[in-house]
Amino acid sequence: MLKWMIWGVVLSMLVACGSGERTLNEADPNIVAQRPAYAQVEPIFQRDCIPCHSGTDDGPREEDDGGEDDKRAGRRIVALVAIANDPGLESCQSIVNNLEDVVEEIFDNNSMPPGAWPRLTSKERLTIERWIDGGASCD
Q1: Contacts of range 127-131, beta carbons closer than 8 Å, 24 or more positions apart
Q2: Which of 68, 69, 91, 110 is spaced 20 to 30 Å from 36 by Cα?
Q3: Cβ atoms within 10 Å, residue 30
Q4: Is residue 92 part of a domain?
Q5: Average pLDDT of the segment spanning 113-138
Q6: Domain span holding position 49
Q7: Mean predicted lDDT score pLDDT of the chain
């Protein structure tokens, strides 16, 4: 009898996990504002994009730095960086100007943030997606 109860619990858990193929938008459409403001997406870009895509030469480099010390961290680095002609994403307007690349890298390729940097959560991706769908306003 106990064996059947355990199987019942396991089966119930498996059925409950079956909703995993639904998107966050389908599973909980109210978890994110329908038309998020830039103030809601800015922290995501600040944390996950701007450290490498600032449009300046201050970020990490793609190639080995030849053994020079990273002055900020006080250690030798071999770091990753954006493409050579990266215009930067340091402002709302620069993000809007590069929306095609943002969509491609975040949503189509799922390649940003790269490497061991944590991927965006479903909630963060949905926030950015809805901000773009709502017109990507900088207000």
Answers
A1: 127/32, 127/33, 127/36, 127/40, 127/41, 127/44, 128/41, 128/44, 128/102, 130/32, 130/33, 130/34, 130/35, 130/36, 131/35, 131/36, 131/37, 131/38, 131/40, 131/41
A2: 110
A3: 7
A4: yes
A5: 90
A6: 31-58+85-133
A7: 74
Residue 74: left (phi > 0), alpha (psi -120 to 50), or beta? left
Token pair 């030849």 is found at 66
Is the pLDDT at 18 greater than 90? The verdict is no
CA angle 42-45-49, nearest 5°? 165
Name the percent of the chain lying above pLDDT 90.
Answer: 22
26 within domain boundaries: no
Structure tokens at 3: 């064996």
Give the total number of structural domains in the chain: 1
The Cα–Cα gap between 32 and 106 comes to 18
- Look up residue 30 and give its amino acid: N
Is the predicted pLDDT of residue 82 greater than 60, yes or no? no
Query: What secondary structure does DSSP assign to 106-132, as a single string?
Result: IIIS---S-TTSPPPPHHHHHHHHHHH
Encoded tokens for 8: 């019942």
